[in-house]
Amino acid sequence: MEIASAEKISSLGGPSMWIEWGNLARQNKACNLGSGFPNFSLHPDLKEELHTAAENPVTCWYPRAQAHPRLAEELVATYSPLFQREILPTETIVTTGAYQGIHWTFEAFVQAGDEVIVFDPLFDAYIADSIITGAKYVSVPLMLESNSWVLDKELFANSFNSRTKMIVLNTPHNPTGKVFKRDEIELIAKLSKEYNCLVLADEVYDRFVFGGYNHIRIATLPGMWERTITLCSAGKMFGVTGWRLGWAIGAANLIEKLFRVCICDTFGTSTLMQEAIAGMLQRQRMCSPPKESYFIWVEKIFAENYSKLKKAFIDANMPAVHTQGGFFLIVDCSKRKFDFQDSSEYKSSDDHLDKKIARGIVNEFKLALLPLSLFYSPESKVRPTSYLRVCFAKSSETIDQAVEIIKTFH
Amino acid sequence: MKLENGVPAPANRLKNFGVNLWAEFSSLAKEHKATNIGQGFPDFVVPDFLQEEVRKAVAIPSANWYTRAQGHPRLVKELAAEFSPLFNRSIDPMSEIVTGVGAYEVIYAAITAFINEGDEAVVIEPHFDCYAGDMDLSGGKLVRVPLRPTGDAKYAKNWTLDREEFEAAFSERTKMLITTTPHNPIGKIFTKEELEYIGSVCKKHNVIILSDEVYERVVFDDNEHVRIASLPGMWERCLTVGSAGKTFSVTGWKIGWALGPANLISQLQHVSSCSTFTAPTLLQEAVAGAFEYERSVAHTDDAYFKWLPAKLQQNCQMLSDAFSEIGCVPVWPDGGYFMIVDTANMGWDFSDLKTGRCYDVDCVKWLTREFKLATIPISVFYGNKNRHLAAKYIRVCCAKSDETIVRACQIIRSLKKQ
Fold first, then answer.
1. Do residue A281 and residue A378 come from a single domain?
2. Which of A163, A277, B130, B162 lies most in the core, judged by the most C-beta atoms within 10 Å?
3. Is residue A108 within 8 angstroms of chain B, CB to CB?
4. How far is B110 from chain A, CA to nearest CA, in Å?
5. Interface contact flag, B254 A63, Cβ < 8 Å
6. Which residues in chain B are contacts of A42 at CB distance < 8 A?
7. Residues A188 and A168 sit within 8 Å (Cβ to Cβ)
8. How far apart are CA A71 and CA B300, in angstroms?
9. Interface of A with B in 47-66 (CB under 8 A)
10. What is residue A272's predicted lDDT score, i.e. its pLDDT?
């Protein structure tokens, strides 16, 4: 029998890009630097917290909807210094991944007639949520200048109008690795106050910033706490994206609106995961000396990975765009020729160059990378087609395997 | 632009949000350290086989990473193996099953997938309150049809639909029927004949049936849990929702699923790919292991699905006896986690408190504060129009530990008429 789905769902269109590219990686049993999640083994501290949580009977019982109490305490203790204020428990809410935090923010605040400013390239959830809430998204592309991604301030300012409800600021940025600079964040703050908008600050990579750069939390700027919802991710932070845990932090009257959606869609998320992460956050807070912290450990792994990969790609004549943080490297695939054995698709297809090259690399070399053009919204007025996104937040073994493969590019 | 506290006001879809009674009563119970036979979560010790499945899942490296969005492969295969015989069909795990963060999320996905602004859903009342919140978010309207006590009201099976009233609830805007069996809060298990009738009306109006069957494993006496999707001609329009939390008494795991035809299931997956994307891999793995284990002991004394209904029936009997002794009238359920109890005979009167709330809300708060006994008011489960049908009822949960049940019975026996 045919029953039409709701219009908001049918407007989403076809299957997500992750399905096609995920299938390609799987079919080729590829070394996967396409997917954006860490694949290294659990840190021993985290393993211990998980075992302890698994033995705790309270993890079999319903969570308190807004947050498991122990996790709420840890969030307050961890984030108060990071936001330079005394955060209250009512100013935090736990989400099933930061992914759900994005969804709740849109559901709570965005409707037909609203406009949402997004920076291209971007994480596709912002577009899906704009569509299902009936909003119009306004694309402001980041521009490549002198091998760095910059915000065109005039273009950005001109994208505001009386219908602008929200700006989505993802920093450190996926896929470019850009860490927004102080003057850029101050401009975003200034305009959001002038037009009285909200800011959805997607800061899932907040702990992954390279030396010499600072992650600036827009919610800490004057007048911004009351209009910003900041999202963080335990999955990204601790390499456990399969645990589906994140949180939103913001002024209580904003968080309360997210809570209204929460009690309709999931009414709380797994107590087990919350208890384990609470334990891990507590360890990080109490970590003495700090050099033994998880973050120091993972920073070292990522720095080595980044360095090895960047060199391997440069040697293959695929120079990297300058990156400041996050999980990804962007490499230029247009500076060299690829001689794929099955060149039929490569030569004849009308598709973008980066997609053709990415398909060729995964099919022939069994190395999964993602074409950057995939990350541009349908409305984006620019769509560079010469770059690939590479995830370096992987185990050393995976990176070493990738490096060996890159050496064989002909 | 509309403002609230100087910043953009929330979207219109939040406008019907009222006070959340669950949060209110849960906090009150904790504050007074009450013996909690209110909220529907089991507080008994989780059997070791479940702890063992979590331990095994924790040891799998890939259990810490994203899994397949529609449902973890091992879990959907186990669900297909478990439910195919129960529906008398071969369920395709890859296209006819979707998993979510609790049955709660699956219900949200089902309603969001099909309800447009202005669409209606018929729901059998009293009903679990999340259906109302989900309809609000989609701009839909719930049309409630009550179960009415007919014949001996002391038995849940005698609370039935008035069929004229039921059929009159359908209009050209009706997109969905929402039904719960075993029923929360009344504990009725709809008979095959009742479900055949309901199915025929839904077929006539060409609506989807969202069948919330989370309590399917808790069947008392010689009742039978009938799955509407297994009846002739019904599979194509039914979404059957299940819950690991209620099946294995691990409500904190928050893993649920829906079974149904691929064209309906795929729409739920579109919704969850916007909201949570996927449920925790580790817990999906543990639930898969739990089903596999349970199937291996299905015909032995170790079978959890034998122990659970027997235990809960015993608990229910104890609570029923205690309430009957003091003069209340419990409604004996066919199954499920709950029992409703009519307190009218007690002569309790809270009108002088002038709270402006319904009797049952005042009664539940009084019992919590004065007697440290937490229950749930029936108001949560009704729209305004039919609330009077169960005006002096409260709901109790029998899925509790021996200690909780014994303590609750002691407190109940100390209550006096006025």
1. no
2. A277
3. yes
4. 10
5. yes
6. 61, 64
7. no
8. 40
9. 47, 50-51, 54-55, 57-65
10. 95
Per-residue tokens: A320: 């990297």
B345 in contact with A, Cβ within 8 Å? no
**Which member of B102, B133, B208 has the closest CB to residue A3?**
B208
* Structure tokens given for A43: 């840190």
Helix (H) or strand (E) holding B6: none
Residue A287 has pLDDT above 90, yes or no: no
Amino acid making up residue B376: I
Q: Spell out the alpha helix ranges (H) of B345-397.
A: 359-371
B143: β partners: B122
The whole-angstrom separation of Cα B169 and Cα B201 is 11
What is the Cα–Cα distance from A117 to B45, expressed in whole angstroms?
A: 50
CA–CA distance, A24 with A362 (Å, rounded to integer): 7
Supply the range of the domain harboring residue A300.
Answer: 7-42+293-407
Q: Which residues numbered 47-76 in B keep a CB inside 8 Å of some CB on A? A: 50-51, 54-55, 58, 61-67, 69
Among candidate residues A43, A56, A41, the one with its CA nearest the CA of residue A271: A56
* Chain B, nearest residue to A227 by Cα: B7
- Percentage of chain A with pLDDT > 70? 98
CA distance B194 to B126: 17
Q: Quick: pLDDT tens for A63-100.
A: 899 999 999 999 999 999 999 999 999 999 999 999 99
pTM for this entry: 0.96
pLDDT beneath 50: ranges in chain B: none
**Contact (CB, 8 A) for A366 and A34:** no
Nearest by Cα to A94 from A68, A123, A112: A68
Are A34 and A57 members of one domain?
no
Sorted by sequence, the CB contacts under 8 Å of residue B404 that are 6+ apart come out as: B35, B36, B37, B43
Cα of A99 to nearest chain B Cα, Å: 6
Q: Which residues lie closer than 8 Å to A210 by C-beta, 6 or more apart? A: A179, A303, A323, A324, A325
Token digits for A207? 């702990």
The pLDDT value recorded for residue A293 is 86
What pLDDT, in 10s, does the model give residues B124-152? 999 999 999 999 999 999 999 999 999 99
Tokens for B139?
Answer: 């701009």
